[in-house]
Amino acid sequence: MRANADVDAYLRRQPGFLWRQIVATDDGRLIDIVAYDSPAHARAGAAGITGEMAHSPVHDTIAHETVDWQITSTLHRLA
Question: How far apart are alpha carbons 19 and 28 in whole angstroms?
């Protein structure tokens, strides 16, 4: 989680960023959920993770072949 510090700072600067949550499944997978106010902002933010943030130490902690990037729309949220 420490390796995510610079990514967190990057996300906070992105237009439309709402929140980020990293969760672990019972089988050990990590799911990184990043919420934006629009799909366009989400695509721009995601592009920066592999572009502007390509030097981030977090990339050394990830098995990149297991990454599944998805941009979806929220259908229902209860806060």
Answer: 22
